[in-house]
Write a structure and sequence with these properties.
two-stranded antiparallel ribbon, 545 residues, mainly alpha
């Protein structure tokens, strides 16, 4: 295992500058994400130090940036709000425990090689889930930008009501700072080399101090305790440990789904090897470090990973440099943080999470597949109206329903010669009900199991007795190339269908069966004297006589 793979004497300057950029982006964002999670600013900053170092040293991904993100922060806040008062000492202890449980779950997933579970969070489900969390975050940040107080422990609809009723008491100076901050951040996108979030924090803090806007009602970050992270352990009961398990599992699954996907995408783009199992260990170590040093649950940050990629970084060195710079800030620079205006933090977070709403993704799903749009919409509303934990449970149920729905209705096609001199048959596109006069080649595209056995039987019966068949069918060829397995229930149903065909004078043949499939057919006594053929063309030539 090579540490900092990809780093050489020619690239270290680019990597070092990228590290400074990453710190400038991550420090203000993590302060905002800590507030979303209901935690002190130091929790966000400490999550950038030990966890980032552990992940950078252990991960196989050269570019993935490990850090709390907006979705994870919202999930932490919403899941712990019902267990303790937001911001209380007990609440902070629960957040530490949540990270430690997450570390154990990551480690178990690595040991048992369960990374595939993240695949059950399909793109539509992630769009809906993350979009719902993003809107929930946006509501709280808009309230902060307007200077309106809402109860962070309430559900989405009550908080929305509080925001609307509080509009008559908004703070004009907060609105001005927010509008200016958003304008700088949006316009600044054209000049990506400049860390605009840091610029906004510096400028708005100067304006607040010069014009004494805190006296005019503008909220500020407040005192941030100085000092490096220290080892700690959650002082909670066993009952409370059990209470954080569901949310820790949910956070782990979301982090796996997003983190492994982003890691694989950049590994493929830059032609280096990515090992998902090793990255799961790295995520586990990062969360262990976070829970032991005062942080909160660590996942991956797609936006910061993209920023590092655009800056030319191809190693984990920027994460190490950002960790060192963050350590210097918490040791010597916390006095500079206490006068940061809350509206500016709200603006930074709001601009960062707007893309997570997934409006373009929803429009694309509506255009391409209405069912998947409905899945995304249900997840979106589930997160907002029922909470993230129930929302992710709904997401998994919908994923399983979608998988079962697809598996229970695999394509069953009549194959016809392609016209190519090569021995190729393709699915009929013109409504053909036979492959040759009196012969039907039927391809069932999927494993035969109890959920789709009736689909197979119906296909056999309908293909052999269509109303518009000009020549009576006397032979049925089952193309087994896509049949990967057979269970007992399916064998019984398929046997009845094939016996029915034979009883009606139809000769049955099997083609292109792999060794394991042929063994299953013989094991369940489905062959019944039928012949096997190496190709569809050979079967049609023999049985079509």
């Amino acid at each position: 295992m090579r540490i900092l793979a990809g780093l050489d004497r020619h690239s270290w300057r680019t990597e070092a500058l990228s590290g400074v950029t990453l710190a400038a982006i991550a420090i203000p964002l993590n302060i905002g994400y800590a507030q979303i999670a209901g935690l002190p600013p130091t929790a966000g900053l400490y999550s950038l130090i030990v966890p980032a170092v552990l992940f950078a040293l252990l991960a196989s991904s050269r570019q993935l940036v490990a850090s709390p993100d907006a979705a994870a922060a919202a999930l932490v806040g919403s899941s712990l709000a019902g267990l303790a008062a937001t911001g209380s000492a007990s609440y902070v202890q629960l957040a530490l425990a949540q990270a430690l449980v997450g570390a154990v779950v990551f480690a178990l997933c690595a040991v048992l090689k369960l990374g595939f579970l993240a695949n059950f969070l399909s793109a539509p489900i992630l769009v809906g889930f993350v979009g719902g969390l993003a809107l929930d975050i946006l509501l709280s940040q808009v309230a902060k930008m307007l200077g309106v107080k809402v109860n962070s422990g309430d559900e989405f609809l009550p908080r929305f009501g509080e925001l609307v009723t509080g509009l008559g008491h908004l703070n004009v100076w907060s609105v001005c700072l927010s509008v200016g901050s958003v304008a700088v951040l949006v316009i600044g996108r054209r000049f990506r080399a400049i860390p605009w979030a840091l610029v906004v924090l510096v400028l708005t803090t100067v304006v607040l101090i010069v014009f004494r806007l805190d006296d005019a009602g503008v909220a500020v970050l407040g005192e941030v305790p100085a000092g490096p992270p220290t080892l700690t352990w959650p002082q909670i009961s066993w009952h409370q440990w059990v209470q954080v398990i569901p949310s820790a599992v949910a956070l782990t699954l979301v982090a796996m789904a997003e983190g492994l996907l982003v890691a694989r995408r950049y590994a493929e783009a830059h032609d280096y090897t990515d090992r998902a199992n090793r990255d799961l260990w790295a995520f586990g170590a990062a969360n262990l470090g976070s829970g032991l040093t005062g942080g909160f649950t660590v996942g991956s940050s797609a936006s910061r990973t993209a920023a590092m990629d655009q800056s030319g970084s191809r190693t984990q060195l920027p994460s190490l440099i950002a960790a060192v710079l963050t350590l210097l800030v918490v040791c010597f620079g916390t006095a500079l943080l206490q006068d940061i205006p809350s509206p500016a933090i709200g603006a930074i977070v709001a601009v960062a999470v707007v893309p997570l709403l997934g409006l373009r993704d929803f429009a694309r799903l509506w255009r391409l597949r209405r069912f998947e749009f409905a899945v995304a919409a249900v997840c979106f509303l589930g997160v907002l109206l029922l909470g993230p934990i129930i929302g992710i449970a709904i997401a998994f149920v919908l994923s399983l329903v979608n998988v079962i729905r697809s598996a229970a209705n695999p394509p069953a096609d009549v194959l016809v010669p392609s016209g190519d001199p090569v021995d190729v048959f393709r699915a009929a596109r013109d409504g053909s009900v036979s492959s040759a006069p009196g012969v039907v080649v039927l391809r069932f595209s999927g494993p035969l199991f109890f959920g789709n056995a009736q689909r197979f039987a119906s296909a056999v019966r309908s293909m052999l007795a269509p109303d518009d068949q000009a020549v009576p069918v006397h032979a049925l060829v089952l193309d087994c190339s896509a049949v990967t397995g057979i269970d007992t229930t399916a064998a019984d149903v398929a046997g009845e269908a094939l016996d029915w065909a034979r009883a009606n004078g139809v000769e049955v043949g099997f083609s292109r069966a792999r060794a394991a499939t042929r063994a299953d057919l013989e094991h369940f006594d489905l062959v019944g004297g039928s012949r096997f053929f190496p190709s569809n063309r050979a079967a049609v030539a023999e049985l079509g006589r």
